[in-house]
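Please describe what follows:
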Amino acid sequence: MVESSINFRLVLIHYLTFLSVLVFCACSNDRSKARDLIAQVGEKTLTTKNIGSVLSSPTSEKKRASSVIQEWVDETILYVEAEKAGFTKDHQLINKRNAFYRNLVVSSYINNSAEKSVRVTKDKIKSYYKDNLSSFLRKEDEVFATHYTTKTGADAGALKKQLLSKNGQILLDTLRYAKETQNIIRGRLVNALDRPLFLANQSVVGPIKNKNRYHLFRVFSRYKKGSQRDLVSCYDEIYQRLYKRAIAEKSTHILDSLKQGVNIYINPEYQQQ
């Protein structure tokens, strides 16, 4: 019971911070003025102005907007009940909310200040790659392929026929399917797809039925575990490594500079030995 209460309190911290932007909306009972009204729970309202902080354009992002709106409705219902139960006055929750907000502000300030002077060049990325080749060996078998999915077996069969034909690329547009081209690492897909993809040695694998979809893979390249990844496949990863390192170094420099102009006192009893 105590553990459940603690977990519930931790969940509420999320409501009291990030979601408070959407939950604490202007109250209005006059629906005739609600041209901008998106949803309402009791007296809590969600308008196009409120949702603007999450979606740039609700009308152009209908699928995402629908998900956000439903989430707002569900969480508002829970928030109102939590509010009635007195959780919004809980000092422990309030302190944690304030600490979360404080950390968010500090992090945003540091990142904003550091980003202005952080530059990760192509030369730095190439140099890092050459100096750390052993860090970019494949840990599992891998394929570079286009993953196609269709709703029917007939579409899947027709799609495979087109993929295997010489002029198939021209006729693909007439078929109904979804696709994604990417590197696929062994073990990342469900076993029903992973096993045939990596055991087969064909350029087109499938169709494979899994649940209510049919899957095909057009394989362009296969790589063995332990083989060297090229710079192109590592580029974004290296960029992120160097960027995070540069931000951390710059953040330390900013903090050290700010400390020079501030009087700091720490009670000796609480200083680290």
Observations:
- The chain has three domains: 2-112, 122-132+231-259, 138-223.
